[in-house]
Every structure is written in structure tokens, then in C-alpha cells.
Amino acid sequence: MRKIAVMNQKGGVGKTTTSVNLAAGLALQGKRVCILDLDPQAHASLHLGIEVVGETPTVYHAFAGEKTLAQVRRLVAPQLWLAPSNIDLAAAEMELADTPGRELILRGAIDEFLATESYDYLIMDCPPSLGVLTINALSAAEEVMIPLQPHFLALHGLSKLLETTALVTRRLNRKLRVSGIVLCMHESNTRLAADVAADLNEFLSASDAEAPWSQARIFSTKVRRNIKLAEAPSYGKSIFEYAPKSPGAADYLGVVVEVLSMEQAAQQPLQLAQAG
User: Fold this and answer.
1) Which top CATH class is 2-275?
2) Number of CB atoms found within 10 A of residue 19's CB
3) Percent of the residues in the chain that have a pLDDT greater than 90, as a whole number
4) Distance (Å, rounded) from C-alpha 77 to C-alpha 117?
5) Any idea what the Cα angle at residue 253 is, between residues 251 and 254, rounded to 5°?
6) Measuring CA to CA, how many Å separate 178 from each of 71, 91, 146, 215?
7) Domain boundaries, the chain
């Protein structure tokens, strides 16, 4: 099973779009997927057509210890489950401020959840910040995927994000690795996009082998600007439901295929060892 945190502290870079459409695309490939909406803005929940009202259990209740993730999650499509969020989750940042072990609350909830549930992928849509909720996601995950808009300021902010993953790796989660960077809102006909991609390649190739991002790949699939990707959330659908023949659907299918290929590549050394 793969536990993936999709994160970027900069908003508007395609983080939730990537979380939702990666999860939906994997589910269409027959994988059992659960997406945790860890953003108080609840954009992943809304993108999948879920608006929390009344006493509906949310991720907030799991953080508060009032519900388990098994009680919070709901089936939103074949093979795809969602643990929804709402604005109450914003209170968790303050309520957890003085709680011992506050960075590990989500890890404990996930461990309890997976003791009785079986999934192929657990995808965490993180808030656009590096606060307690994001640190909880990094402490619980094994992989980080970073959606990145190919602009100078987005690239500049990447260093802070990578520093945070290194800090969490040292202090809270030795298994954490940055597995991939997805270039979103890509415009292939601009010089800037090419320059940013080149700078990113140069940075990764020069990284210390011990850094948690040393093995990160820049996805060869670039997610192009596409109006259908912007429209899909307002209909409560993934791009595969809303516009399956659009460039946005083609691009995210490419991302899904690359994610699956990473899984296959990881299994090959094990298979060779068993054969030997």
C-alpha cells in the first residue's frame, strides 16, 4: 500500500486538482483508493460532490478522537472513498497546539484504520500551509508528491517545502521520501516553463544522496492548462467523469500511468531477489 501526501504551501498550483484526479484515475484502474481531505477549505470534498452539513462526521472528528477514519470515510465512486473535511478542521490547528504528540495524531488514526481496512492507495490532500495538519500528513505518509506551477516564485518556494520534508524525515518519519514533482498549468510554448523545468532538473541532479528528495522524479507528463479542469469541481466530478476526452483527462491519465509504473519498478528488485 502507498501512502501519499500531495502538498505545496503555495495555493493555486493544482494541488487539490492533482489529489482528486490522481485518486479518481487510480480507482478507474481498479485500485482501492481513499482520499483524506486535510484542507479546512474542503476543496477535495467539494470536487467530489460532497458538501458536509449538520452532524456529518469529518476528518476533524478523527483528529478530535471522536470518530475513527472508518466511521468518517464514505464511498463516492467505484473503488474510491473520501474522508471529507469542512471549516471545523481549521480549529484543529489551535486545539492541538498544546497537545503532546500532536504531529502524530493522524498517523495513529491511519494505523488504526488500516488494521481493519485494505487499500492500495491512501492520498492526503494537504492544506496550502506548513502547519500542524500538513506536518501530520508528512508524519503519516511514505511519499510526497508536489504539484508545481512552472513559475519562478513557485520554484523559489519549493526550497522551503523540501526543507520541511527533510526536517520531518529526521525527527518524525524516517520513511518519508519525495517521490515526484508534477508540473501543472503547463504552457509548453513559453520559454519560462522550459527554464523552470531545466532549473528543477539541475537542482535535483545536484542534491545530496541522503536528501529525502534525491530520488524524486519530474513527471514526464505535464498537466496543461485546460478549462475543463477548472470547470469539473463546480459539477462535483473528477475530470474523468466530467470531460473524459479532454486534454486534462489525458494528462492526468498520463500521471496515473507514471504513478503505477513507479509501483512496478519498486516491485522488480523484490521479484528478482525472490527468483534468485
Assistant:
1) alpha beta
2) 28
3) 64
4) 17
5) 65
6) 30, 28, 8, 7
7) 2-275
- As a whole number of Å, the end-to-end CA separation of the chain is 25
> Per-residue DSSP letters for the chain?
-EEEEE--SSSSSSHHHHHHHHHHHHHHTT--EEEEE--TT-HHHHHTT----TT---HHHHHTTSS-HHHH-EEEETTEEEE---TTHHHHHHHTTT-TTGGGHHHHHHHHHHTT---SEEEEE--SSSSHHHHHHHHH-SEEEEEE-SSHHHHHHHHHHHHHHHHHHHHT-TT-EEEEEEE-SB-TT-HHHHHHHHHHHHHHHTS-TTSTTTT-EE-SS--B--HHHHHGGGGT--HHHH-TTSHHHHHHHHHHHHHHHHHHHHHHHHHHHHH-
Number of residues in the chain: 276
Virtual torsion, Cα 70, 71, 77, 79, nearest 10 deg? 20
Q: Which residue has the cell 492500495?
A: 120
Quote the pTM value: 0.91
Side chain identity, residue 123:
I
Q: What is the pLDDT of residues 111-150, one digit of tens each?
A: 999 999 999 999 999 998 888 999 999 999 999 999 998 7
Q: How many beta carbons lie within 10 A of that of residue 41, not counting itself?
A: 17
Q: Hey, what's the cell of 95? A: 486545539
Chain-centroid distance of CA 175 in Å reads 16
Question: Angle at the Cα of 138 (from 65 to 171), degrees rounded to 5?
Answer: 100
Alpha carbon distance 234, 230 (integer Å): 8
